Amino acid sequence: MTSITPTDLQPDGHAAARPAPLPLAGLLALAMAGFITLLTEVLPAGLLPRMSASLAVSESMAGQLITVYALGSLLTAIPLISATQGLRRRRLLLLAIGGFAVTNTVTAVSGDYLLTLVARFFAGVSGGLVWALVASYAARMVPSHLAGRAIAISGIGAPLAFSVGVPAGTFLGGMVGWRLAFGIMSLLTVLLIGLVVAKVPDFPGQPAGERLSLRAVVRIPGIRPILFVIFAFVLAHNILYTYIAPFLAPLGLLDRVDGILLVFGIGGLAGLWIAGVLIDRWLREVVLVSIAAFIAAVLALAFWSGSPMVVYVAVAVWGVVYGGAPALFLTASAKTAKEAADVAQAMIVTVWNLAIGVGGICGGVLLEAFGVVSFPWAMILALVPTLAVAWSAKRHGFPALQLARPAE
């Protein structure tokens, strides 16, 4: 018989129910899925010279291996998630993860540029599916009041891929060759498949009569403000992040790009931890403070970028804000969309990738037309409406915490 200690008793003498622990093994498996997804996407960036030489194409053509990955996610995430709403969730997750094992293996052994390009497109298809599934999957694994923390834990793979995976993969590719680096990614994927089977629970898909169409999901109160906030926020980020080196060059900091990006990455890990601690109780407040802090960091770069210390502090704040943003936005979406969370997450994947592309294009146009001094002001033009929309979505999307009244 299980013994009950005095600390287990409520004032009335009854045994208090201890909260169930978070399923860390399963959540970390989802985080590993995110790690492999993002590392598969961006690893070529650090290996472009070697890949272009091996595939007998220019570095600009090799760079399209990243573009076509994003295109695969952008074009297929919504239709695939909509078409697979009835499948059991773990089976779909395993199919998406298995896609990385196949596509990274093809990338590792292919000597043909076009075949590699096709493999990268289908890697993007797998990536879009994984990102559409992970957040809602994590939320279903825990009680509703812990959904935000679970999503934050499952999201740690992305900042780790940026701060650890890409530098390690680039170093490994330089030491033993880029093909072996992608082969190791395939082996990690096989290990992840075993971990998902062992530690991630299965959930049923949506019954046919309960599935919502894309139009119906868009009409759910709060979804459109969330999508707008995500688009404008990510667009502002990518205007500067894509062209961080040209921005730092006139400041005499070009030789410190690596260190500044390291500060950004460390800030991102800190931001994810902060979001995980506060997200379930103070979601709205953390979102508003994050956007306001982003605006403050951008204003600091606009007015005081001549000081290296200001640049480092502003980048650190920017990293903290951006590191926590995915968990915040995905939690808001999951709680707003409820049973249609997978479709809503697929919409976020599409909007996020679209914002990355538009941000890069806008940054390029601004760089050519007005120079880097225009970056902060363009970002402010995107971020001010972002803050206004998030503030106004206090009933649906980013609602204020409703505290339960004590029983009378």
For the structure shown, list the relevant keywords.
Growth Hormone, Chain: A; 14 helices; disordered N terminus; single chain; 408 residues; globular; mainly alpha
Spell out the blueprint of helices and strands:
Elements: H1 24-55, H2 59-83, H3 89-109, H4 113-140, H5 147-154, H6 157-176, H7 178-199, H8 214-218, H9 223-241, H10 244-248, H11 257-304, H12 308-337, H13 341-369, H14 375-392
Helix pairs in contact: 1-2, 1-4, 1-5, 1-6, 1-7, 2-4, 2-13, 3-4, 3-7, 4-5, 4-13, 5-11, 5-12, 6-7, 6-11, 9-12, 9-13, 9-14, 11-12, 11-14, 12-13
Describe this structure in words.
The protein is an all-alpha fold. It folds into two domains: 24-204, Growth Hormone, Chain: A, CATH 1.20.1250.20; 214-392, MFS general substrate transporter like domains (Growth Hormone, Chain: A). Helix content is 76%, strand content 0%. It contains 14 helices and no strands. The protein has helices at 24-55, 59-83, 89-109, 113-140, 147-154, 157-176, 178-199, 214-218, 223-241, 244-248, 257-304, 308-337, 341-369, 375-392. α1 (24-55) runs parallel beside α5. The longest helix has 48 residues, at 257-304. The two termini are 37 Å apart. Mean pLDDT is 86; it is low at 1-17 and 403-408.
